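Project channel, design review

CF: Before we commit to the Panagrolaimus superbus constructs, I'd like one complete example in the thread so the newer folks can see what an input/output pair looks like. Taking DUF1266 domain-containing protein.
RD: sounds good, go ahead.
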Amino acid sequence: MGVLNNWLSEEESLWIQSRIHLRALRYYSNWRQYFAGYTFGRQYWQSPEDDHLPLLREFLARKEYDDSGNDMFYQLFASDDAYYATLPWQPLADYPTCPETLKDMSDL
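CF: and here is what came back for DUF1266 domain-containing protein:
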């Protein structure tokens, strides 16, 4: 999105994504855990009850997906040949170096 809107160069975007990749590998063991974390966060932000803790707990406990959430889950995880099942969960052989324009962000 950042590259398409000319907010970032492709080099900057790849470097930021490589930093996100390293963090994902650190905090999650596989694609299913990563997607579960994403889904939980997505449900939280879609909840109409975010300012009322008991109702928020109930909403999240029911695991209410919207239609696009259901579609995304089935496309990504429904079978062994689904999209995420075909991608290895491992470090990359090479990571890009931080572009000069992002040196102030190098703590990512």
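RD: helpful, thanks. The chain is about 50% helix and 0% strand.
CF: The mean pLDDT is 81.
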